[in-house]
Amino acid sequence: MHSTASVATRQARSALFREGVRDMAPLAVGYVPFAFVIGAAVSETAINDVAGWAGSFLIAAGAAHLAVVEMVDNGAAPLAIIATAIMINARLAVYSAGMATWFAHESAGRRRLLAYFLIDPTYLLSTNRFKTDDPGPACRRWYYLGAASVLFAMWVSAQTVAVLVGNRIPDDIQLEAAAPLILAGLLAVSIKSREALTAAGVAGLVAVTLAGFPFSTATLMAIVIGSATGARPRRKDS
Amino acid sequence: VTSWIVILGAAGGSYALRLSMLALLGGRERQLPTWVDRCLTVVGPAATGAILGGMLLVDHGQASLTVHPQLIAAAVAFAAVRRSGRTSDALLVGFPVLWMTTALF
């Protein structure tokens, strides 16, 4: 039998989990066209279909996954392919540092599980929620896991369908626009200080300026340069 | 075989990156230099700005500074959420703007 306190805790946790699902759902739908592009590329190019499909939940990061699929098709050396994927995903180490603050009270085992789901949408949505309305150290993971579950379920099932039947999404509904629209909305609520505004503006500028950089390192460099510029000490601070 | 090697290699590398700082910093009170802490507070907006820049102003790996329906819709969505404070407005306002501007372009 559970005490009333633990029942209340469980209800709060499941409410947080459902809130994560609800907040992520539209963003997850926005990533479906991207999942279809990758799935269709897996079925149409040289990579082994099962290995390429397994990348949806093993690599679990679209840009790196697509780069791997395309480089296998071009006959690149395996080490070069792996190195490229790691360069593209280097930003995940930055997210990992950001999340370490919020999950500092979780056990090592739980952090290993939470790390698996770390990717742009889960990081951005969760840190935004924790900053605006922190559920507390014991409950944060439930929001994050709710958001992650719907994103990963959508991502893997969309790729599965695309590997099997090819890309069948009609172009004219522009489903893929959901992702930039939601990110624009997320940006609107996450800019609460001049530091944040500078960081976002500089990062956007760097990402566009360095767009042609090798190994898709533009995003990583944009995040690093943007946050360093935003957080730089200003004269009035000293 | 090559397919599995590269998928598993990329997967292992990606997971190591995801776990890296969670494993190194987590589990105890952090003792990070102040400037790292300051940077981490703005990583979210920086990442959002970088990804948006890549989605809206980069085409096939090249900077592409043209006005197009998605860009307009994203700008309007930003303004709408900024005004209302409700993130759901991004889609409720953004998609109609996107479809209308697409029809006009």
Fraction of helical residues of chain B: over 70%
Low-confidence stretches of chain B: none
Give the averaged pLDDT of chain A, no decimals. Answer: 89
Helix content of chain A: over 70%
Structure annotation, total helices of chain A: 12
Element order of chain B: H for helix, E for strand: HHHEEHH
**Distance between termini of chain B?**
48 Å
Tally of extended strands of chain A? Answer: 0
The shape of chain A is: globular
Rg of chain B, nearest Å: 20 Å
- Oligomeric grouping of the chains: heterodimer
Residue windows where pLDDT falls under 50 for at least 5 positions of chain A: none
User: What Rg of chain A is obtained from the alpha carbons, in whole angstroms?
Assistant: 19 Å
Mean pLDDT of chain B: 89
Total DSSP E strands of chain B: 2
How large a portion of the residues of chain B is in β-strands, by DSSP E?
under 5%
The biggest beta sheet of chain A reads: none
Question: How are the secondary structure elements laid out?
Answer:
The complex is a heterodimer of chains A (238) and B (105).
Chain A lengths: L3 H27 L1 H13 L4 H10 L3 H12 L4 H11 L2 H12 L5 H9 L3 H13 L7 H26 L12 H13 L3 H16 L8 H14 L7
Helix pairs in contact in A: 1-8, 1-9, 1-10, 2-3, 2-4, 2-9, 3-9, 4-5, 6-8, 8-9, 11-12
Chain B lengths: L1 H24 L8 H8 L1 H15 E2 L2 E2 L5 H16 L4 H16 L1
Antiparallel strand pairs in B: 1-2
Helix pairs in contact in B: 4-5
Question: Can you tag this structure with a few keywords?
Answer:
heterodimer, A: about 240 residues, mainly alpha, 12 helices, about 75% helix, B: about 100 residues, two-stranded antiparallel ribbon, 2 strands
Report what the structure shows:
The complex is a heterodimer of chains A (238) and B (105). Chain A is mostly helical and 238 residues long. Chain A is built from twelve helices and no strands. Chain A is globular. The mean pLDDT of chain A is 89. Chain B has a two-stranded antiparallel sheet with strand order 1-2. Chain B is 75% helix and 4% strand. Chain B has helices at 2-25, 34-41, 43-57, 69-84, 89-104; strands at residues 58-59, 62-63. With 105 residues, chain B is mainly alpha-helical. In chain B, helix 4 runs antiparallel to helix 5.
